[in-house]
Design goal:
Strand content: 25-35%
Number of helices: 9
CATH superfamily of one domain: P-loop containing nucleotide triphosphate hydrolases
Strand order of the largest sheet: 6-7-8-3-9-10
Distance between the termini: 50 Å
Shape: globular
Number of strands: 12
CATH architecture of one domain: 3-Layer(aba) Sandwich
Radius of gyration: 19 Å
CATH class of one domain: Alpha Beta
Largest sheet: 6 strands, mixed
């Protein structure tokens, strides 16, 4: 379980996230949504301990993360940043980086480490590209490899910053289904999402942010029936019983 108590933070004196309190339950997916620049990515950095809290605290299974060693924190919380070019490296080598918190110096992989890498590749559906170079792969394949690296870290809490960006819809569905499988394995998942349809389809909770504050945190059904989507994004959601899907529209239309 991941818990935030009155967390604020940002860059120097510039506070981006203000007074956020939330509990992200074990075995659940929470999608963080909101307008660009509202503090979603900063919130994940604070959760991961990669940015210090200006006030408040983050707890992982009841322990304040600021009291954890770097390796202990990495074994508890894994963080996948937004997609970027990782250069010329094989998929297997990249995924092996996820085992760094478990290695001493010099880094020597044990049989258990190799097994964890193989398991992560299989779970992410990336075994067939294990020997390929990252810079030769499609965006969807690269993202599978990056998620496999996160899985190899074997953490209970997984933070994903925009894992579906730059992917076509088929790959978005594949990655979303993979995230759902991780939830079913008991992982705590917190992910920043820009696609509300997929966020509402796969998430157990939706966290809506506006101007650095958490203005709503509830089930997709409760969020859809409330006012937070309109306040934060200027959109509304309607559930269709026939299709089992949410449909989204602007709260206001342009008028000629």
């Amino acid at each position: 379980m991941l818990e935030l108590k009155n967390v604020s933070g940002g860059y120097g004196k510039r506070i981006i996230v203000s007074d956020v309190s939330a509990v992200f339950p074990e075995g659940g997916i929470t999608s963080v949504i909101g307008a660009n620049g509202c503090g979603k990515s900063t919130l994940l950095l604070l959760c991961a301990g990669l940015m210090p809290c200006a006030s408040g605290a983050v707890f992982a299974d009841g322990t304040d993360i600021k009291n954890m060693t770097r390796n202990a924190l990495a074994r508890k919380i894994s963080y996948l940043e937004q997609m970027k070019n990782v250069g010329s490296i094989s998929v297997r080598s990249l995924v092996s980086h996820g085992r760094f918190p478990y290695l001493g110096y010099p880094r020597r992989y044990t049989a258990e480490d190799i097994s964890k890498v193989d398991e992560a590749l299989e779970l992410a559906g990336a075994s067939d590209i294990a020997d390929c170079m990252m810079n030769e792969l499609s965006g969807g394949q690269q993202q599978k490899a990056r998620i496999a690296m996160t899985l190899a870290q074997d953490a209970d809490i997984i933070l994903l910053d925009e894992p579906l960006t730059y992917l076509d819809f088929r790959h978005k569905l594949e990655i979303s289904e993979l995230i759902a499988r991780l939830r079913d394995m008991g992982k705590t998942i917190v992910t920043v999402m820009h696609d509300p349809e997929l966020a509402f389809k796969f998430s157990d909770r939706i966290a809506v942010m506006k101007e650095g504050r958490l203005i709503a945190f509830d089930s997709p059904e409760k969020i859809a029936s409330g006012t937070a989507l309109g306040e934060a994004l200027g959109i509304k959601a309607e559930y269709c019983d026939k299709t089992g899907r949410y449909f989204f529209d602007r709260t206001e239309k342009f008028v000629d």
